[in-house]
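#lab-general

N.A. 3:47 PM
ok so I finally got the sequence cleaned up, no stray characters, all 177 residues accounted for. can someone with queue access submit it? mine expired

B.Y. 3:52 PM
send it over

N.A. 3:53 PM
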Amino acid sequence: MIKSRGVLHILLWTLLLLLPASSGFAWFGSAKKGDSAMPEFSLTTVNGGQTVSNKSLRGQVVLVNFWATWCGPCVNEFPDLNRLHGDLGAKGFLVLALSMDERVSDVEAFVAKQRPTFLVAMGSKKLIRKFGGGGGLPVSFLISRQGKIIKKYYGPRPYELFRSDIEEQLRQPLPPG
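B.Y. 4:20 PM
back already:
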């Protein structure tokens, strides 16, 4: 019984490692390139009460980050997101952090304490699925000036990787009109 249980565990782990690669999902891998349009949405920010939508973001390079206050890696990534926004915001870059928390009050308390300089709003399971995410947090999406999802990042990423990818997009020309 113990031997068969060990073999079963090996088979399950093998499937878990192979399935993500074949389905486009990456547990620990690097960003995944894509060219699908950012889904439509309109949200009110927790920190400022302004309306932000996919249309209002067009023309900017955007990092959409799905996170939660109860997610340790998400919270640890927050200072880097703030730094990225501070370093690159004047060049046409914006961070939009979408919380997957159930209670707005938890996010409001976190935002009051952390004081991010970027936009924070409430996300939803439906919206994260529209972006092509799910299965874990944090997950981030780099959006081009044309409103296309350029890269997907599953799990936390270092400041330097985000910055390099963002700067590459900032060098691209502005969309016409």
